Amino acid sequence: MQEVFDFANEKMEKSLTALHNEFATMRAGRASASLLDKVSVDYYGVPTPVQQMAAVSVSEGRILVIQPWDVSTISTIEKAIQASDLGVNPQDDGKVIRLIFPPLTEEKRKTLAKDVSKYGEEAKVAVRSVRRDCIDKLKKMKKDSEITEDDLHNGEEKMQKITDKFIKRIEEMVEEKEQDIMAI
Questions:
Q1: N or C: which end of the chain has fewer CB within 10 A?
Q2: How far apart are CA 46 and CA 173, in angstroms?
């Protein structure tokens, strides 16, 4: 029966990690190297993440500096950034690319906060889906006489406690990200 709980913890933890990664790629008024996580460059026919082709650093809070290891890839990296949904135009001086992030408008902040809530709800749905699958496994174990009725009842209670713990963590992550976005 413990393997069911271990499975639930592992899957629910993956939902939290996915949510964390999604939040990392959202712009909150400051430049962050993680904003480029979803940007891939066509490098000799292979989609390659920008971080594998260049040194990425934050300068002055709102400026992201990308310094390619191979200067000939500047235009390719620039085109990939323009094609992405970052919403900034890259500026290059032949050696480095600069991404200057303007301050977020109030309307954009509210839109991002709604997106944060949406991603949080999706993570909660994923966690609840894992709970449902695990409770089904416990019921099957009861049906196959591997566990008793009391074990099933206790297992369902334990599964609910695990689920509640992860839902609480998701809500904390959502609240923290919303505050980060709405902060001026």
A1: C
A2: 34
